[in-house]
């Protein structure tokens, strides 16, 4: 397993490329902007793009999806259905506008996707949005805007819910073992570190 990333857009969103080098396939996670740079990251990997995976529907994680589908027209795009709208896409949209049936896919709690020899497990973590998810692959977690280093995602946007966020962080804290955490913004962290020092997570653990 190899993970590459670039930061895109004016909010510096992390776009990740998850590669299974053994079988030569890859998945894009949260292509938020700069489709040309994102496509170049895919090309440089030498792997075939199998999925585009979205941790939630906010524009800073999804803006490059449609331009990328012009280059990769058959690639399925996965998102939780609660973060999808039937409205036409708008600038800085807070929900993801539904794609044509050919591309649109949905995942939910407990679903798994196979990426070559890798298994991607979906964990629903509402709070930042109703349809936020974390993606677990081995000992790696792509946490979107649920868990950051020392913090968590905002809950004051439409669809945000502070109580749901605390419950989601409680579920993450209860996961067995340690995870390398790749968040939607800023640098990577580890779940054990967050269990010890993240005030939103330690508060929940102390209840």
TrEMBL record:
Keyword vocabulary terms for this entry: Hydrolase, Metal-binding, Zinc
UniProt KW Membrane keyword: no
Domain of life: Bacteria
InterPro entries: MBL_Glyoxalase_II, Metallo-B-lactamas, RibonucZ/Hydroxyglut_hydro
Metallo-beta-lactamase domain residues: 12-185
Cofactor annotation: Zn(2+)
Keyword check for RNA-binding: no
GO molecular function: hydrolase activity; metal ion binding
PANTHER family listed in its UniProt record: HYDROXYACYLGLUTATHIONE HYDROLASE GLOC (PTHR46233)
Protein name as catalogued: MBL fold hydrolase
Species, as recorded: Vescimonas coprocola
